[in-house]
Amino acid sequence: MTPSILNADFSNLQYEIERIAQVSDFVHLDVMDNIFVPNFTFDFESAHKIINSSALPVDAHLMVANCDVMGPAYAEIGCASVTVHAEATEKISQTLKAIRSTGARSGLAIKPNTSIEQYIDFSDDVDMFLIMTVEPGFGGQSFMEAMLPKIRRTREIIGSRSIWLQVDGGISIDTIERAAEAGADTFVAGSAVFKANDPAVMVTSLRNLAENMAD
Ligand code: DX5
Ligand code: ZN
Predict the structure, then answer these.
(1) Element (H or E) spanning 3, and its range?
(2) What GO terms in the biological process aspect are recorded for it (predicted)?
(3) Which of 24, 188, 202, 203 to mutate to test the pocket of ligand 1 (most atoms within 8 A of CB)?
(4) How many domains does the chain have?
């Protein structure tokens, strides 16, 4: 489970991350530049501070236009995983390899209207596919059921490779089982976690639902 702090209290992120640290594997950091998506979250300097003070390894999701430069830069400052958007990168293979060369995991994200088929050939450079289940840009949107076939297809493409399959957007106790059943194994949840009375209890509930489905 990888809670997204997009819907957490930005004025006290260190505390917000600590609240879920005991029960989460990573914290998901949504970086938006107001170019690739119509929203802005952190510049590099602010993100660097969050990464340095985080009680959890950071899974950076870069929704930025210049990801061929920023992807490796985020990997170099200590993110455990860096995901770039297939629609933004002009040098997919080179960027994924550069992220990996720092020791970070490389992720390739695809937006709802992008097909996975054209990216199969990059599988050898990918540690994680991220299938967006909302249009990137904002938290609190509804899970797009129409993405379930794409999640299934991606699971089929992964086959016996040890690539993680992440879903991001609208993941909650109402939707996580369907995403897990379709083949997702790594789950980002923002508002479901940080709007819950007890975020840590919610993370555990979500994890249990996903694991029961995967059994
Ligand atoms: C959307 C972000 C998501 C977002 C998820 O562009 O990539 O990570 O925080 O938030 P929820 O879980 O509220 O859909
Ligand atoms: Zn995200």
Answers:
(1) strand 2-3
(2) carbohydrate metabolic process; pentose-phosphate shunt
(3) 188
(4) 1
